Amino acid sequence: MPASQITTTKDGRFGYEASGAPERQTVVFLHGIGGAARAWRGQLDYFGERRHAVAWDMPGYGQSARLETASITTLAAALQDFLSQIGAKQPILVGHSIGGMIVQEWLTTHPQAASAVVLAQTSPAFGKADGDWQKSFIEARLGPLDRGATMASLAPDLVKELVGDDPDPRGLEIATSCMAGVPEASYRASMLALLGFDRRQALKDIKVPTLVLSGSKDRNAPAPMMEKMASFIPSSDYVELQGAGHLVNLERPGQFNAALDTFLMTHATPATAER
Known about the structure:
The chain is an alpha/beta fold. Helices cover 42% and strands 15% of the residues. It has helices at 41-47, 72-86, 98-109, 132-146, 151-162, 169-181, 184-193, 223-231, 248-251, 253-267, 270-273; strands at 5-8, 15-19, 26-30, 52-56, 92-96, 116-120, 210-215, 236-241. The protein has an eight-stranded mixed β-sheet with strand order 1-2-4-3-5-6-7-8, with helices on both faces. Helix 5 (151-162) packs across helix 6 (169-181). The protein starts with a strand and ends with a helix.
């Protein structure tokens, strides 16, 4: 398998990892709030065999510069800048959690610019900023930091809450390491960026082939909600991985890769993906 390479864009704004030949169609992986580009190495090596597989560090993470103001809208604009920097034309976008929200937002302004998208363990809405559930969700995650905890001290318990049954031990280790390494300021900014996000009405306007991927034990993006989400997207496939939680690509890398591979073989075969 090819080893992923760590690099930055020419303008220095984005850090990312990549595997595979750049002349092939690009698959871009976008991590969640507690992730990093390196969380996708199992996918980069696997899909880099036939495609150009890329994972960015979201702004404020890893080697990527922070945004002055972080919102789903500004993150989607940053995604477009990143795609331009790496020369990705008609890419396949794979967004996990907040990464999936960024993809949905990006599609509202670039509806035909992707060959296909994957919305993994994500949601079309977080809801109103002053809602009781929303305030409780944010408090549960930021409250401990307010009281003196650190990302490193919180990471083991946070990750355990996210995973489902029998997670891959190596994946659990990577998830914990990524969570521990997230700068506190970036974690806070990303959490607050969720507030007010709502693209439920835009689901019907997604025209590109879409895979909606859930885990049956995911409490952050429950499978029934994701199945309903998929029903509003005209060209969507829905896949639910039994026993998996919120971090499917790390918990069940083989099943995640197989589901994504099946989808890509149908909608973006390597033979037609050459640029």
